[in-house]
Every structure is written in C-alpha cells, then in structure tokens.
Amino acid sequence: SKITLTVIKADVGGFVGHTDVHPELLEIAKKHLKEKGKMLIDFHVTRVGDDIELIMTHREGIDNEEVHKLAWDALWSCGEKAKELKLYGAGQDLLKDSFSGNIKGLGPGVAEMEIEERKSEPVIIFMADKTEPGAWNLPLYKMFADPFNTVGLAIDPNMHQGFKFEVYDMIGHKKIIFETPEDIYDMLVFIGATGRYCIRRVYTKNNEIAAVSSTQRMNFMAGKYIGKDDPVLIVRCQNGLPAVGEALEPFANPYLVAGWMRGSHNGPMIPVSLEDAVPTRFDGPPRVCALGFQLAEGKLIGPQDFFKDVAFDNAREKALEIADYIRKMGPFEPHRLPLEELEYTTLPHVVKKLQGRWKEE
Ligand code: 13P
Ligand code: 13P
Ligand code: MG
Ligand code: MG
Ligand code: MG
Questions:
Q1: According to the model, what pLDDT value does residue 276 have?
Q2: Is the pLDDT at 104 greater than 90, yes or no?
Q3: Quick check: CB of 230 below 6 Å from ligand 2?
Q4: Of ligand 2's atoms, which has the minimum distance to the CA of residue 343?
Q5: Which residues participate in catalysis according to the annotation?
Q6: Fewest C-beta atoms under 10 Å: which of 143, 154, 232, 342?
C-alpha cells in the first residue's frame, strides 16, 4: 500500500529571539509523536533556526485529519512550554486556538506526498529559515528543468522527456500546470516573481509526484500580511528523478531570497548543517538545510545532513561576502524589500503624521 510522507513545521517561540528552538520543545514534540502517534510508521523531529520540523511517515494519505491533529497538538504543547519559558514570539505560528479538520490555514507550514515506495526511495527534506516559499522556485527550476544543473535531463533516458510544474498564484489564488521543457520561457515569466508565484508541486510526465513544497495561501489575518512562512520542500531522487547530487547542486550558488531581518530584506541563502542553522547576524542571513533519508517500508533511514559537506564551503564563503556587501545598503532597496512586501511597516503611521506636509504638484 502507499506511503505518505508528511512534513509539518511551525515557529512556536524562538530561543533566543528568532535564532533557535529551545531543546525542551523538541523533547516535548518527540514525546508527543511517540505516545500519541499510533498511526505513524516513523517520525523524525528536528529544527532549523527557530522552526520546529515534524517529519512523519504513515499510510493515511495526504490531508489526513488525525495526522494533522497529531502535529497540531504536538506544536500546541510546544507552544505552552514556550509561553512558560517566555520564549520569543511564543505561539507565533499557531494562528487559531483550536484545530478544525486540517492544519492548513491554521499557521503551520505543510508539505506532504503520497507515494508508491520504489525499490529504493531516497528523499531529501529541504528546510529553510528566514525566507518564504518562493525561495524554492529557483532551485526547483534548476533541479527539474536546467540541464546545466541536472545533466540527467540530457543523458538519462528516464528524465529526457522533462517534468510538469504546478505553479500557484498566492495572490490570485489560482494554479496552472507548466510542461517542461516545452513551456519553460512562459513559466519563467511567473516563477521569477517569487513573492507571488510559487512552485507547489513537480510531477513526472507520467504524473508521479517528484517534489512538493509548503506553499500555502499567504498569511493574511484581518487583511494584514502577517509574515513570511519559513518553507519546507520534499524532493524524491534517483531513477528517473534528479540524483541526490543534482537536487543539492542549486544551493552551491547562494542566490538571493526575501526574508532575513524582520522578514523585510533580500539576502543570500546559505546552505548549512543543522548545527550551523542558528541565524544570528541581522537575524540571518537566510539558511537552508537538507536532510536525506532512504525510505524502507515507510521507515525513515537516516538522516544524512547533506550541507555538512565541505564542498559547500565556497558557497558559504560567497554568501558571507554577499551579506557584507548588501548589508551596507541598510534600509535601501533592493536590500530592503519594496514597501508592499514588508512584513513590518511604519508607512501608514508616517503618512498620517506627514498629512498636510506633502504638497500636490
Ligand atoms: P555510483 O556509481 O556511486 O552509484 O554513482 C552513480 C550516479 O548516478 C551518481 O549520480
Ligand atoms: P522568523 O520568521 O524566523 O520568526 O523570523 C522573523 C523575524 O522577524 C526575523 O527578524
Ligand atoms: Mg521566529
Ligand atoms: Mg523562522
Ligand atoms: Mg518567517
């Protein structure tokens, strides 16, 4: 029968500030999944920056109420502890106070896929902090559509036909399927606009799921944009899909993403080990971790902490140089995000204060 891989994540309080998760919270989450997760085959609990990541396998399919409730209750218990320890932003991503059917829309990020487990099933869980779901557009394009990244697209007969990309418009609430390589020029018009259009899923041309991101509707509460969702991404690898090394390769170039300080700045995405996923400089720069697992009848064999590899040292060094460079711009665009994309804004207040001083011309 089919296996479902579900990743649910949330920031329920930072230790200290927005940098990390307190170890007691991780213990609570593990204990909760162990004791209450009777329907799970296996699970792995970790954190990247201030985000708790629940990686779970089961046979209940996607959007399963019990699995989502299990994760919600685990995160809720962590949130209670965060309040007790007065951690920063305790309960930040738990936007509602009760669970109703599906965790989507309640604050946490969700990425899940139901698969027929192959003879060998290598998967990578990418987890980022201090950025947004659009941060996966560039690497997903490279993994699944760019032969300069993924040579398999050119030389592997099982990949040569290309892939299908499901792109979601987070403002218009619409989706479209692009076929690659046929549609790449059309697709790039949209996915280059990472604040609005996100790659939500990638399929093979035979409609096998290959990748899924935690792209949900944007977090608007009472009409106000309340922040970027630090995103996760699941990628299946090998045998007609990108090799593990092809899936990791896009991160060897630290491209710019939106997020960082106050969710309001562009900065380089640094690939790091879990140990180094504690963003502190200007609350960043944005981090990405990649954990590899082999699935065996749903068991999570692993993890392998991929970005520990010294081969990503140059990417890290380059990212730090970019960070030094762009930080000098202070509150100026394009380091600071355009007004409409700021997570924090004093604009209405300042506009009001200056009423009467702006003269029509
Ligand atoms: P191995 O020869 O180490 O199995 O590697 C094969 C491969 O496809 C690497 O991408
Ligand atoms: P998080 O989204 O990781 O909580 O970061 C928010 C922030 O404001 C960092 O400066
Ligand atoms: Mg936080
Ligand atoms: Mg975070
Ligand atoms: Mg955030």
A1: 98
A2: no
A3: yes
A4: 8
A5: 11, 225, 228
A6: 154
Pair type for strands 270-271 and 287-296: parallel
226 has pLDDT over 70: no
> Residue 193 contacts by C-beta under 8 Å, 6 or more apart in sequence?
134
% pLDDT > 90, the chain: 85
- Please report, for residues 112, 169, 212, 258, 321, the alpha-carbon distance to residue 216 in angstroms, rounded to integers and kept in the order given: 12, 10, 11, 17, 32
Q: How far apart are CA 187 and CA 180, in angstroms?
A: 9
Distance in Å, CA 248 to ligand 1 centroid: 14
Quote the ligand 3 centre to 6 CA distance (angstroms): 22
Q: Is the CB of 130 under 6 A from ligand 2?
A: yes
Count of residues in the chain: 361
pLDDT of residue 187: 98
- Dihedral of CA atoms 316, 319, 320, 322 in degrees, nearest 10, equals 160
Q: Determine whether the shortest distance from the Cβ of 47 to ligand 2 is under 6 A.
A: no
Tell me: pLDDT of 224 over 60.
no
Whole-prediction pTM: 0.96
Residue whose Cα lies nearest atom 6 of ligand 2: it is 262
Q: Give the ipTM.
A: 0.88
CA 209 to ligand 4 centroid distance, Å: 27
Q: Is the CB of 129 under 6 A from ligand 2?
A: yes
Instruction: Please give the backbone phi and psi of residue 80, each rounded to the nearest 5 degrees, phi first.
Output: -65, -45
- Going by alpha carbons, the residue nearest to atom 7 of ligand 1 is 243
pLDDT digits (tens, 9 = 90+) for 292-342: 999 999 999 999 999 999 999 999 999 999 999 999 999 999 999 998 887
pLDDT of residue 227: 58
CATH number given to 1-116: 3.30.70
Position 204 pLDDT exceeds 50: yes
Ligand lying closest to the C-alpha of residue 18: 3
Q: Give helix 65-84 / helix 23-36 axis angle, nearest 10°.
A: 150
Query: Which residue ranges make up each domain of the chain?
Result: 1-116, 118-353
CA dist 120 and 138 (Å) reads 27
